[in-house]
Amino acid sequence: MARGFSHSFVISTCIAATLAAGCSHTQPLAPELVDMRKVAEDAINATSEEFAKAVDAKDVDKIVSYYTDDAVLFAPSGPAAVGKDALRKAWQGFLAGPASKIDVSGTVIDVAASADLAFERGSFTNTITDAKGKTTAVTGKLVDIWKKQADGSWKIAADTNASDK
Amino acid sequence: MSLFKISRLLFAATAAACFAAGCSQKPAEPATPPDTRAADETAIRASDDEFAKAALAKDLDKCASYYADDAVAFAPGMPAVIGKDNIRKFLSGLVSSPGLQMNIHIESIDVARSGDIAIDRGTVDATTTDKKGKASTQSIEYVIVRKKQTDGSWKIVADTSANLK
After folding, report:
1. What is the mean pLDDT of residues A113-126?
2. Average pLDDT over chain B, rounded to whole?
3. A87 has a chain B CB within 8 A of its CB
4. What is the pTM of this model?
């Protein structure tokens, strides 16, 4: 009993001492990387929320401010919009059309270990209300590419969408 | 051997084992992972080239092998294609297009600093011929997301495109 105690005491003391003194520099690396990804994911989600508010407010300047200068937008139909000017026109056209409400759900964000690049997958529902008040829902899938900017903010480099049917 | 001696021996042995297991690498600044971006870009360019060759050779298995199991594909005028099996069906349509010619123009390849996610952007001119032998060319803008696999190869997780006009 006494021997068992002394052995386990020696071992546990040794492990504790080793971890505290010898290994404190190497251990935190992995948790650090995980944290960087989590911080990036939270920042992207927060930016997405702001983006959605800008869309609801039909604030085109604000909407395009979330895209990189060379961003692309693939709407579920119609040609690609390449670059900020084309994106602005595409959004203006969309917002001038029938009233619509975009809801995004089931998003999964994959952040690079270096937290400088990320892509997001998810589903969207676009509920369109015509002049007579009749609503139609269009559902689809989205893939967005996010790039971290020099100032630490995240911007959309590609906003790609396809309908389910 | 006295209990005291055994304890000292055990302490020495355990300490050695602890250091060997936990501290085989000298505690130092957090290691910066090697920058593989140039090699990654080369591999992805080669992958685009091989894909085009496989499509022209109507090698469906080879074409499908570039996609991850849970990949998504958005093509012009088509509903979202989800999963490798459905992508394979979609690709079978592509490779069986009569007189298919593909010209891929890569505009940029953006690899995360950590070398685990890459964005490939560009345009493709795909020419096909109708029953009368008349050729028509469709120009698309594409954005492809790839993820590095555990074996070091890159697989497509999202293949999105829209018509340029």
Report:
1. 97
2. 88
3. no
4. 0.81
Find the farthest-apart pair of alpha carbons in chain B and give their distance in angstroms, rounded: 99
Rounded-to-integer distance, Cα A100 and Cα A161, Å: 16
Residue-number span of the structural domain to which B100 is assigned: 37-163
Mean pLDDT of chain A: 87
Q: Single out the residue of A67, A72, A85 nearest to residue B140, CA to CA.
A: A72
Predicted complex ipTM: 0.81
Q: Which residue of chain A is at minimal alpha-carbon distance from B147? A: A112
CB nearest A162 (choices: B80, B114, B117): B80
A138: which strand partners?
A: A126
Residues of B in Cβ contact (< 8 Å) with A28: 30
**Which residue in the set B78, B114, B143 is minimally distant from A145, CB to CB?**
B143
Residue B18 lies in a domain: no
Nearest CA in chain B to A2: B3
Residue B140 domain flag: yes
Counting DSSP H helices and E strands in chain B, the numbers are 4, 6
Could you tell me if residue B56 is inside a domain?
Answer: yes
Strands across the sheet containing A67-74 = A81-82, A67-74, A154-163, A135-148, A117-129, A99-111
Flag whether B16 is in a domain.
no
pLDDT at B22 over 80: no
Using one digit for the tens of pLDDT, what is the confidence trace for A37-96? 999 999 999 999 999 999 999 999 999 999 999 999 999 999 999 999 999 999 999 999
The count of domains in chain B is: 1
Is A47 part of the contact surface with chain B (CB cutoff 8 Å)? no
| A155 and B CB contact within 8 Å | no
Residues of A in contact with B2 (CB under 8 A): none
CATH number for position B126: 3.10.450.50
CA distance B55 to chain A (A): 23
